[in-house]
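Two folds, back to back.
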Amino acid sequence: MNIKKTFLELTKYNTPYGTESIIEKFLPNDIKKDEFGNYYYEIGESKSLFTAHLDDASWSDVIEPVNHIINGNYIETDGNTILGADDKAGVTILLNMIEKKIPGTYYFFLGEEVGMVGSRGIINIKEKWFYKFKRCISFDRRGYGSIISRQMGKQCCSDKFVDKLIEQFKIVGMTHTNDPTGVYTDSAAFIGIIPECTNLSVGYFDEHTNNEIQNIIYLEQLANASTKIKWEELP
């Protein structure tokens, strides 16, 4: 999959909460919808849940075109809209992992930016369904190399889990660190349900503003690395 092309297509229009269906055409043809309206896709027998969210932080319900400006390794906008890298970068990574047939359950949530509406909504409907997972990984963090170990003031994953994931990323040529400064993303909704929940940096900055920017080279590196991690072996 061409990571840059996919990212540019996904961010062609903004997607405030309630308009996420415009992204459906980029998802696998046989993707499923849960009882709340979130999208999910299952590959093989896996205890890993991978997540990203389809909405962005546009502060209106109007779909607007995004005018991309490409400066070397960075993609931004003309300043009239947000870019939507939060979290189309994560969506890009999940689509790449699906194409490479990496075992896992892939969840594309609605309404993360307005209070994790999609993830909390489906937990309220079928919490027990998620007990089968041992780890939940959201790709939805600014910057580079963060493996979030605390969200919403709570420990969300063990140091043992983080250390092993750092080791796995090092093997494939990427440097990561234990970051306890997480705020929240969809993985936080699963604290207390799934033993290990984390959130990984995907290379965007200035999210929620019209100055939002994405390092596309970092996104390409992370997308490639994420297909090589031995997710099922993480403690």
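---
second:
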Amino acid sequence: MIQMTKINAPYLLKRNGMFHLHKRVPKQLIRHYGKQFIRKSLRTSDRKEAIRVASNLVAAMEKEWNEQILSITPDTSVFTTLEKQIPSVPLLSEAGRFYVEMKGRAKDKRFVRYTSRVVSEIIGLAGDKSVSAYTRHDALAFRDALLDRGSANATVKRNFECIRAIWNFAAREHGVDVTNPFANMNYGNGIHSVKRQPIKIADIRTIQRNCFEIDDEIRWLVALLSDTGLRLSEAAGASISDVFLDQKVPFIRVRPHRWRQLKTAGSEREVPLVGAALWAVKQAKNSSESKLLFPRYCCERLCKSDYASNTLNKWLRKIIGEGFVVHSFRHSFRDRLRDVNCPSDIIDELGGWKTHGIGVSYGLGHSMENKFAFISRVKLTF
């Protein structure tokens, strides 16, 4: 009896009694698919059945791979296609890094951290593929993952704004001519974001009174926030050279530093110091032994505003209860200025908020004396 030659199937692997397809991706397409091997369980322990199923899959894959490698656009010569190398489209991880660098935000730790987190989440769900290889299915999986963990609609939108910007940047730079799979997304029924409540005037007085009594670096930072409406990172990342106490109107200059960038270009400003804020800056300046106003929460490499936020918020909860954070001072600051009929453009200038309209970009802005006239009216007595 003549024994049949056993069919050679090098793409089959047997694990735990079941056959698996194991096929190497062509080198030219590894960046496109984001992986070096295709691995798939064939759900059978029968070798003949495994060969039959795998052969169909392998034939389909090789057909698709050949089309990818040898595809010819209508305006391209076949000889040019055969001679040129496959254009290099970056992986999503690379595109994210290029995007940060080209935006000039590589030293902005918070921006880098946020962008990296969004990219990492997508890679965790769909793999680190070339940007042109992502599909609508990948985008939907990212959206569903955000919604499943209870993210607010605003958070989901922010995440998609980030990945859309990265994808669009990479597509323009590398000539990717396909539809952005992360565009025009329906965000579903995410929870509504929690509206941040302002701190009541009586509670601000209580907080400031406690700051005076304890009189340490943590309380100086809280006091500065309470009467200026500064963002926490703006205050914690201030240097001694940002403080001007010997002027007719004492003020603090909010400007970018290598250890702390600003949220927006419009955040750069000068804010008069009054009340608890003026006291806090004097105490911090006299006590600091470095070039930084709050060395506990900042060094010349980075501003540790997240660390400061946890400490300050925990202390605020002890003083005025749940529901308020240090950012609530900004909401209160705006309300306090409204209550003294401060013009909205001065409020925006003091808080570093975006002011709409072309006219606001003309001139030098409001004088320090004009800003002081309104901010001094919201100073609290103890």
